[in-house]
Structure to design on (329 residues):
């Protein structure tokens, strides 16, 4: 009698579009989720609380991931967890990966959408929030009442940039031209810097109505943005370029407060044109000349970020309303 030998064939890898999918542990995504929570929170206890787990469980997830990858992902210092170089690289990949997971869950098998619904998260400056996007967002909500907005405002551009880069929000609106490689920026509208004064403080205009001679600002009482504001640095550079040295009488971190000081007679100021479009009856407005006084605002998202359908639709609506309708003075 012949005896048959049984051979176990190795499990083949699965080719997909020319790419071989290598096997990996089915718990890999959970390990990565634990890692990302610790990376964002900076310590185990807060990460455990955010995940609804106990601290030893989160520590186990991170250890499993480190064993799988064969690298140390954190420097453990007392109660804090600081990312290693490998950890920082992995965090960038993890953010993109979790965005892709969101995209798969949201779009695959979702069918046609008749109604946008859900949260839309964004960040920009106080002035843009109040003077530029309030109307478009209100109209979008009227068209899609099942949507809601989570709006975070700040005077420092790094605040919005950090939120976008960490994928904590859907998009931001910022002035500037140079952004990190992880950011995708689309020009949205232009603004111009303008000198604002009471009617009893008169400056010379050129033929186009622009401020003719910046040296007239020397020693004039001036209401400035606080040094923490991005606009403060822009205005300071503009004044230095013009060779003007006004006398700072007060500082504030909000354009509405600054305008109230100007109206009260504290001094003059330099703001962006969209913050004073409705002040022509009370104040004199002098646009500053030259391209240097123009500021480009862009809508920024994290590159390759998945945008929920309602957020993508809101972005499209902002471009339709603002791209051609907001023009600098």
């Amino acid at each position: 009698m012949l005896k048959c030998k049984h051979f176990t064939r190795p499990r083949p890898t699965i080719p997909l579009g020319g790419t071989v999918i290598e096997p990996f542990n089915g718990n890999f995504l959970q390990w990565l989720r634990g890692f990302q929570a610790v990376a964002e929170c900076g310590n185990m206890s807060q990460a455990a609380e955010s995940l609804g787990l106990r601290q030893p469980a989160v520590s186990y997830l991170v250890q499993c991931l480190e064993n799988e990858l064969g690298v140390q992902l954190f420097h453990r210092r007392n109660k804090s967890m600081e990312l290693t170089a490998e950890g920082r690289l992995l965090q960038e990949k993890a953010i993109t990966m979790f965005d892709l997971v969101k995209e798969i869950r949201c779009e695959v098998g979702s069918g046609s959408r008749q109604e946008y619904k859900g949260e839309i998260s964004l960040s920009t400056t106080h002035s843009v929030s109040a003077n530029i996007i309030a109307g478009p967002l209100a109209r979008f909500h009227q068209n899609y009442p099942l949507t809601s907005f989570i709006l975070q405002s700040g005077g420092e551009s790094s605040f919005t940039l950090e939120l976008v880069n960490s994928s904590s929000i859907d998009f931001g609106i910022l002035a500037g031209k140079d952004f990190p490689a992880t950011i995708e920026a689309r020009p949205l509208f232009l603004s111009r810097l303008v000198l604002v004064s009471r009617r009893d403080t008169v400056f010379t205009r050129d033929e186009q109505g622009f401020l003719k001679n910046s040296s007239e600002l020397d020693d004039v009482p001036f209401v400035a943005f606080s040094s923490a504001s991005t606009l403060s640095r822009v205005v300071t550079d503009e004044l230095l370029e013009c060779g003007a040295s006004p006398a700072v009488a007060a500082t504030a971190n909000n354009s509405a407060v600054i305008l109230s000081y100007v109206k009260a007679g504290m001094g003059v100021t330099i703001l962006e044109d969209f913050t004073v479009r409705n002040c022509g009856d009370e104040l004199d407005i002098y646009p500053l000349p030259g391209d240097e006084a123009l500021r480009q605002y862009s809508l920024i998202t994290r590159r390759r970020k998945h945008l929920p359908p309602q957020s993508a639709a809101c972005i499209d609506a902002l471009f339709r309303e603002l791209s051609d309708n907001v023009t600098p003075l």
Summary: DSSP finds ten helices and 13 strands in the chain.
